[in-house]
Amino acid sequence: MTARSPLLLPKNFRLANGSVINSIGFGLWKVPREQTAETVSNALDLGYRHVDGAFAYGNEDIVGEVLEKKGIDRKHLWLTSKTWNSFWDPTMVKASAEDSLKKLKTPYMDLLLLHWPVAFSNPEKKLDKMPVKRDGKQLPVIDREAMENLQHTWEALENLVKEGKVRQIGVSNFSIGKTKNLLGFAKEKPVVNQVEINLHCSQPDLVKFNQENDILTQAYSPLGSDAKQASYSKEPLIVELSNKLNVSPTQLILAWHLKRGINPLPRSTNKQHLQENLEAMNIQFPQDVFDALQEEAYKTPTNRIVDPSASWGVDIFSDEV
C-alpha cells in the first residue's frame, strides 16, 4: 500500500433539508434500564449531543430525567426516536410520538424513524411494544394491509412535522426497493435510513443508493454489536491497521464509517469506551488504510447480526414491497 495524505473526518453531517447532525451518536439500544441514567449522564458529560433512542428500547423515560437534570440547552441536543411496528395506524403514530416526547421531556423530536418496514397487528391500539400472542407464543401477527398502505402511516409522520412535534422523519431497516416505493409518494422525503452496517455487513449498494437520493445512512451495530465486536476487533487486518495508526480497533472501524459518509451510533456503558468512540472523529486517517478496509469489507459476504425475519415470519430485507 502506498501512503497518501490523511483524510479529514467529518464532525457533522448535513441532511437533505439543511439540518446538521453530529457525526458520532450515542445509541441507547441494549442499554439496560438500571444502567441508563449513569451511562447517559457520562455520555453527555463527555460531549455527546446526539442521542439515538426508540420507544421499543424501554428507557426513554430515564433519558428524559437525565436530560432534565443536566439542563443542556435543547438547541444543542439531537434526539431521535422510532415508531414501533405496532403503531402503524395513523392515530397510533401520533400517540406513540407524544408518549416519547413526554418521556423525554422535550417539546419536539429532532428525528423520528419508522423502526422497521414491518407492521404488527394492534387491534386494541395499545401503547405496548410487545406483539400479541399467537399459538400460545409471544409472536407478532403481521398487518400486511397496513404495510401495503404505508402511505397512510407516512402521512401521519409528515403531519407530526407540520405540527412541529418532529423536525424531520426517516426510516430504519429499509431496503433499496422499499425505499424506492416510499420515495414514490412521500411529500416529506426521508432524510435518514438507519440500518445495520459493520465490517461484515457493509451494504455498499444500499449506501450508494442512499447517497444518490440525499438520504444519510446511519449505522447501528457499527462495531459488530456485543455478538461480534470482540472477534471483529481481533481480525489480523484490523489489528495491523490500528497498530499502524496507533489507535484502537474500535476507533479504526468508526473512522472507516465516517469516511464512507456513514453516521455510526456506537453503544457502550463503559465511560472509557464512550470517550474512545467519540474521539474516533479526530483520527488522521490515511487513504491507503481506508482503501484496505474497503477491500476487506466488500469482499466479505453479508453477515447480519440483527435479522428477526424468521421469528416475525416476513422477509424484512427483501426489495419487495
Automatic annotation (TrEMBL):
Pfam families per UniProt: Aldo_ket_red
Keyword Thylakoid: no
GO MF annotations in UniProt: oxidoreductase activity, acting on the CH-OH group of donors, NAD or NADP as acceptor
Transcription regulation found in the keyword field: no
Gene3D superfamilies, per database record: NADP-dependent oxidoreductase domain (3.20.20.100)
Signal peptide: none
InterPro entries, per database record: AKR, Aldo/ket_reductase_CS, NAD(P)_OxRdtase_dom_sf, NADP_OxRdtase_dom
Residues at the active site: 57
Annotated site, Lowers pKa of active site Tyr, chain positions: 82
CDD domains (alphabetical): AKR_AKR1-5-like
Residues annotated for substrate binding in this entry: 115
Residue ranges of every copy of the NADP-dependent oxidoreductase domain listed in the record: 24-295
Entry keyword set: NADP, Oxidoreductase
Family: Belongs to the aldo/keto reductase family.
Name the record gives this protein: Aldo/keto reductase
Source species of the chain: Wallemia mellicola
